[in-house]
Design a protein that fits this description.
The chain has 78 residues and is mostly beta strands. It contains no helices and six strands. The protein has a domain of 51 residues.
Amino acid sequence: MQFLGENPRTVTLDNQTNTTTFSIECALPAPQISSVTPQSGSVGTQVTIAGENFSATASENIITFNGTEAPVNQCQYN
């Protein structure tokens, strides 16, 4: 099961005798960037960002340059 969005989460389980509510809070480490190559380029230049704590799923990584979101084409988990 995957939860996206804000924390904490509240999940309610209903059965015939009672309702139980509990919260799940996730504290994931922030991404750490070790390098960006190339360090400059024109619009459309492919950029490689290396580091730790990124998602292995491309759509879960949001990258912006000067406030403009850039497409994430590939992620590689090492």
